[in-house]
Amino acid sequence: MATGGNAIDLGAQAEYSDLHAIIEESLSCAINLNDYKWFKESITDASSILYIGDNAGEVVFDRILTEQIRKVNSNNIVYAVREKPIINDATIEDTIRVGLDKVVKVISSGSEAPATILSQCSPEMKSMYNCADVIIANGQGNYESLCNSPENIFFFFKVKCPVIVRNCGYDVGTLALIRNSA
């Protein structure tokens, strides 16, 4: 669901006729789970997890995933969102609306970019990023900005364009769970 929620993206599509249809379509998409084993092992063993959110429409699904992660790891989980919405980016206010702040610590990345550009992030975000045992980065923009980072990152996103196809090797429309291999 957290990966399928990435289809709710104003940057990738200009209009929404039916959000339920978008979610239903995402649930029927091909999904890449090749790295699921490493993801499960990594989150189970991690003493700290940084979850970088993406779009406001995904926050409710991110809450569901963080609740499931809490069942296998009750250690430190921090959820980071944009300083303010650039397109339809998630903000702290969005996380409060869905109660995510009651499940994990929520911080602003300090960034106003539709991706995670570390040089533009707050000292708190950079510290969390540098200290986390595991990083979950939701959204294609986060994949684009962090895919060459050497950290233990797992990307959740829907492949939306041919440029990303060339980079990750999955077809447009695929729901991807990709372990960073940089």
Mind explaining what this structure looks like?
The mean pLDDT is 86. The chain has one domain: Rossmann fold (3-Layer(aba) Sandwich). The protein is 34% helix and 18% strand. Helix 6 links the parallel strand 5 and strand 6. It has a seven-stranded mixed β-sheet with strand order 1-7-6-5-2-3-4, sandwiched between helices. With 182 residues, it is of the alpha/beta class. The longest helix has 14 residues. It has seven helices and seven strands.
Please describe the structure with a list of short key phrases separated by commas or semicolons.
18% strand, globular, 182 residues, alpha/beta, 7 helices, Rossmann fold, seven-stranded mixed beta sheet
How do you describe this structure in short?
This protein has 182 residues and is an alpha/beta fold. The protein has helices at residues 19-27, 36-45, 59-72, 92-97, 123-131, 140-146, 162-168, and strands at 31-32, 48-52, 76-81, 105-108, 134-138, 153-158, 175-179. Strand 3, helix 4 and strand 4 form a beta-alpha-beta unit.
Topology, pairings included?
Layout: H1 19-27, E1 31-32, H2 36-45, E2 48-52, H3 59-72, E3 76-81, H4 92-97, E4 105-108, H5 123-131, E5 134-138, H6 140-146, E6 153-158, H7 162-168, E7 175-179
Parallel strand pairs: 1-7, 2-3, 2-5, 3-4, 5-6
Antiparallel strand pairs: 6-7
Helix content: 25-40%
> What's the number of domains?
1
Sheet with most strands: 7 strands, mixed
Helical stretch count? 7
Q: What structural class do you assign from the helix and strand content?
A: alpha/beta
What's the rounded overall pLDDT mean?
86
Order of helix and strand elements from N to C terminus = HEHEHEHEHEHEHE
CATH architectural type:
3-Layer(aba) Sandwich
- Strands across the major sheet, in which order? 1-7-6-5-2-3-4
Shape, per Cα inertia axes = globular
Unreliable segments of 5+ consecutive residues: none
CATH uppermost class = Alpha Beta
The count of strands amounts to 7
CATH third-tier fold name: Rossmann fold
Distance between the termini: 26 Å
Strand content: 15-25%
Radius of gyration, whole Å: 15 Å
Task: Please name the fourth-level CATH homologous superfamily.
Answer: Uncharacterised protein PF01937, DUF89, domain 3
